[in-house]
Specification:
heterodimer, A: mainly alpha, Cyclin A, domain 1, 5 helices, about 55% helix, about 0% strand, B: alpha/beta, Nitrile Hydratase, Chain A, 2 domains, two-stranded parallel ribbon, 4 strands, globular, disordered N terminus
Chain lengths: ~120, ~220
C-alpha cells in the first residue's frame, strides 16, 4: 500500500505480525465506559463519528500504549467537554475526589447501584 | 464486606477466558476518569445510575448465542433465510434483535465461497447479534492482514481452505455491519434449531472458523 496517503488508523493491508488471539471478559469499568458512550450518543450529545474523530486524532501512540476502553473514555471525555456538559476544571476536581476515596476501583467508584 | 463478590478474579472465568487485573490492581487514571465522568453526568441530570445499570444489563444479554439462533433458523427455514439475505436488519428484527447500525448484511458461505468479516478502520461489529468483539478483532494484526492475506490469517485460526474456494473479506463501517451465515454441517439433518445453534460459535459468524458436527 506504499504511496497511498492515508491516516494511521486505516490499517487494512499494512504489514503486521502474527495475530495474538487474546480475549478477556470485559471488566465492569470497561462496560461502564461503553454504557456512557451509548447513553450520551443516544441522547444526541455527540455522535459515533465524533467519538471516532477523537480516537483517530489521538494517533498511533495512543493505540499502542492505551487499552481500547482507555482510549474510549478519553474520547468520550473530550466530546463531553466540547459539548459543554462539564468543564475541564470540573473533571479535574471530581477526579481528585475519586482518587482520594481509595486505591482500588471498587472503593473509588462507590458502586452504589451494584450491591 | 471483602468477600461478597460472586467472582474469584483468578484463573479462568466462567466463559473460559483468563481474568485481566482491570479491577484488582491499583486504580488507574482512566478508571478514575470513568468514575468521574459517570458521577458528573448523574449530578448534572444527564443520566441516572439506573440508566447506566440498564445499559450494562442490556449489553450482558447480547452474546454469540443470539447470532447462533439466527443462523440455526436460517438453516431450517428457507423463507427466513431468503429474508435474512435480502435484508438482514429487518429479518433479525423479526426475531427481536434491535437494529444498531443502519444496515446489517448477512453474507452466506457456499461450497465455493467463504466469507470473513473485519473492520480495518476501527472495531465495528454486529454487537446486536454477537455482543462485544474479542480483543484480537480490534488489534492491528487482524485488521491489517486479513484483507491482504486472508488465507494465511484463517490458517492461523486453524481454518485451512482448499484453493478452489474463493475467500471474500468484508470491511465493516459504523453504518454497515456484516455477519457470516456459515454452511450447515453435513449429517445434521433433522436436528432441532436448538441443537444446530449449539454448533455455531462466534468465530463461525466472524468467518474465522466453520461449524463442525461433533465427532
Amino acid at each position: 500500500m506504499s504511496g497511498i496517503d492515508k491516516s494511521w488508523h486505516d490499517m487494512g493491508g499494512e504489514a503486521a505480525g502474527p495475530i495474538e488471539r487474546t480475549e478477556h471478559d470485559y471488566a465492569l469499568w470497561e462496560k461502564r465506559v461503553d454504557a456512557l458512550y451509548t447513553i450520551a450518543s443516544g441522547k444526541g450529545i455527540f455522535t459515533v463519528d465524533a467519538l471516532r474523530r477523537v480516537l483517530e486524532e489521538m494517533g498511533p501512540e495512543a493505540f499502542e500504549t492505551m487499552s481500547y476502553y482507555e482510549r474510549w473514555v478519553e474520547a468520550i471525555n473530550r466530546n463531553l467537554i466540547a459539548a459543554g456538559v462539564y468543564s475541564p476544571a470540573e473533571l479535574a476536581t471530581k477526579m481528585a475526589e475519586v482518587e482520594a476515596r481509595g486505591d482500588e476501583y471498587a472503593a473509588a467508584s462507590l458502586d452504589r447501584s451494584d450491591g | 464486606m471483602p468477600h461478597d463478590d460472586p467472582f474469584e478474579h483468578t484463573g479462568m472465568s466462567p466463559s473460559g477466558h483468563p481474568y485481566r487485573p482491570d479491577q484488582d490492581g491499583p486504580l488507574t487514571r482512566f478508571q478514575a476518569m470513568e468514575i468521574a465522568i459517570r458521577e458528573l453526568l448523574i449530578e448534572k441530570g444527564v443520566t441516572t445510575e439506573a440508566e447506566i445499570a440498564a445499559a450494562i444489563a442490556y449489553m450482558d444479554t447480547r452474546s454469540p448465542a443470539g447470532g447462533a439462533r439466527v443462523v440455526a433458523r436460517a438453516w431450517t427455514d428457507p423463507e427466513f433465510r431468503a429474508r435474512l439475505l435480502a435484508d438482514g436488519s429487518a429479518a433479525v428484527l423479526e426475531m427481536g434483535f434491535p437494529i444498531e447500525a443502519l444496515k446489517l448484511i448477512v453474507v452466506e458461505n457456499t461450497p465455493r465461497l467463504h466469507n470473513v468479516v473485519v473492520c480495518t478502520l476501527c472495531s465495528c461489529y454486529p454487537r446486536n447479534l454477537l455482543g462485544l468483539p474479542p480483543d484480537w478483532y480490534k488489534q492491528r494484526a487482524y485488521r491489517s492482514r486479513v484483507v491482504r492475506e486472508p488465507r494465511r490469517v484463517l490458517a492461523e485460526f486453524g481454518l485451512t481452505l482448499p484453493e478452489g474456494i474463493q475467500v471474500r473479506v468484508h470491511d465493516s463501517t459504523a453504518d454497515q455491519r456484516y455477519i457470516v451465515l456459515p454452511m450447515r454441517p453435513e449429517g445434521t439433518e433433522g436436528w432441532s434449531e436448538e441443537d444446530l445453534a449449539a454448533l455455531v460459535t462466534r468465530d463461525c459468524m466472524i468467518g474465522v472458523a466453520v461449524p463442525r458436527r461433533p465427532q
